[in-house]
Structures are given as structure tokens and as C-alpha cells.
Design goal:
It contains 13 helices and ten strands. By secondary structure, the chain is of the alpha+beta class. The strands form two sheets. Strands 1-5-6-10-9-8-7 form a seven-stranded mixed sheet, with helices on both faces. Bound molecules: 3,4-dihydroxyphenylalanine.
Length: 374
Amino acid sequence: MSAPNKSYDPVEVEALKPEEIARMRDEALAAIAAAGDLQELHEVKVAQTGGTSPLALANREIGALPPQAKAEAGKRVGQARGQVSQALKARQEELEAERDARVLVEEAVDVTLPHDRVRAGARHPLTTLSERIEDVFVAMGYEVAEGPEVESEWLNFDALNIAPDHPARTMQDTFFVENAAAGEDQSGVVLRTHTSPVQIRTMLDREPPLYVICPGRVYRTDELDATHTPVFNQVELLAIDEGLTMADLRGTLDHMVKALFGDDIKTRLRPNYFPFTEPSAELDMVCYVCRGASVGDPQRPCRTCSSEGWIELGGCGMVNPRVLTACGVDPEKYSGFAFGFGIERMLMFRHNVEDMRDMVEGDVRFTRPFGMEI
Ligand code: DAH
């Protein structure tokens, strides 16, 4: 009744015997269990489920079986392959979980570690104060002018009405770069001792009206100590126009002091002498710390003004007509005022800096507490 047995090669069918299938499955399961990482598991997967794996090859043999044996062998091989792929999936999940746990530990970021081992620098308070002063004047319509630090002796002294025998010109104060050639009418070269030569350069360069502010480094042959430095910074102010008077100078400086130290700070002018201004004065402001209250009161000494009540700011005056003439400006038509002062000194009393050396050493621990000025 049944269909005749088809002849088949018994050697080939050997692979489909239950023990054989079980052995292949067990071998695959052992290899899966032994895979130590995802890469190894991938290799096991290719070897145990790929087209040339023992179970895949066995599966191909099913076709050679007689029909009634096919179903049983198919079920056996199918079950074995199913177990293998399930084991693969389970091991894959296990190894992925292990990897994720390891990565979490290995790549953990310690958020408590300091993030700023390499500290950022900071702008020097001399720069920020100088810019603040410039801003006050730029807001009044002034322009910022600059000049060279290596300057001709004529511009640094002669044009400013500082005669050749003036004490400021001796070797004591001035760094000479080149001496004037003897017997020749030629100017020597110096490191500028003040920013006033920028006044001269501005007047020689341009026609009035002129309103300029000139910040810059200047040099004097001083030893570096708590109150002196051979290199320091000044700000120079120059206004040349028709009809300018000492009242304009007074009002301008008053505004500057109020802008820098507060609206209720009074100023005063004391007579003084500078060769390049006539008349000349010294600008003082009421001590912005004690407001004069420390004067004559030993109970309340003031370090900022040494209990004098006033702080000296700098020199000023009406530009000497001789200076105007030397620069080709007609003193009959134009008049002008000028003002010059040191930024280091202002920084010292404005911020209670006691030692000038702190300003030149460039240590950011000094600079950082001043913070930003915008
Ligand atoms: N150039 C002077 C100095 O360095 C400061 C000075 C005084 C500047 C009076 C001026 C001025 O413009 O009018 O000592």
C-alpha cells in the first residue's frame, strides 16, 4: 500500500540521526555559552547558524529522505535550530548587558573633578581703568590718539616749552636712546617721559578744533619699588578750539571725576607750574573714602588720603601760547586746555593697591579680583 522506499545514501543521512542532531545542537549551545564577548558570539553565530554550519547542512539532507521520514527529521532539525537561535539571542542580551555595565564604569565622568585646572587669564586693571577713562571722554566727543614710546627729544621737551636746561631733561629722569649730535641742530631720541608729546603730534597733524585723549606708556629712570616704577601709564587730555577758557577745563575735569568716583565728589584747582601750560594748576578731588571727615580727627585716620581730605589727581592748565605757536596754531584765534595724570596712581588710591610692584609683576592672582569692567 505504501509508496516504495526511494533508495538513498545512508552515509548522507547519518547526519540526520537524532543523536547526531543532538550532538550538533549541544556543540552549538556549548560554543554559545563559551563566547566571552559580542565579537566571539558573532563568530559562533556565523559558524553555528550560517549556510555551512552543521545544522544547516543537516537541514539540506532532509530533502533526500523518504517522505515519511522527512517530517520527523524536519521537526528534529527545526527544534535544534530553534534552541540554538534562542540560546544565541539570550547570550547576546547577556553580553550586551555586561558590555553596557562595563562601559558605564569605564567611561564614567567624575563630575566632582575640577573643570578649570587651566585657569583663564584676566584683563589687567590698568587696561580696564584706562579704557573706562577713555569711555568718559569718548562720550563727550573726544577721539583717542596715540603716539610712539620712542620719541624725539624735540617733541618730548622743546615743543612743550621745556628748555634744554630744564631739570626734567637731565640724565636723571630720562632714558636717552640717542644723544643730540654735538654742534648740529638735531634732536636726540628719548623714551617719552610723559604723554604730552602726543599733544604736539596731534596739533602738528591736524587743524583745530581738536578734542583728543591720549593714553599710553611712559618711562622714567626710577628704581622699581612700592611707589615707583620706571615704566608707567599716563592719560593726556587736549582740547583746542575757539574761545576755550579755564571754566571749560574745570567743567570737563569735574565731569570726569564724577563719572569715575561718584556724583558728589568735589574737585578743586591749586596753582602750579608746568612749562607747557599757562596758567597751570593741580587738580585735586575730595577723598572719596572719608569725604574729608578724617581731617583733624585722629580717631578716624584715612589711608587713602593720609587724612588730608583731598587726593591729588594730576597737572592741568591752559595750553601755553608758545606751545600753540610751535605747533603752527594761531594763539590769537585758538586757545586750549590740557590735563595729564598717571593711571597707576589712580589705580592705587581707587582700589587700595599698596605696592606698585603688584601691578607690574603680571601675576593673575593680583589681576583676577578686579573682575571685568564693561
Ligand atoms: N606731562 C606732565 C607730567 O608728566 C603732566 C601734565 C601736566 C600734563 C599738566 C598736562 C598738563 O597736559 O597740562 O608730569
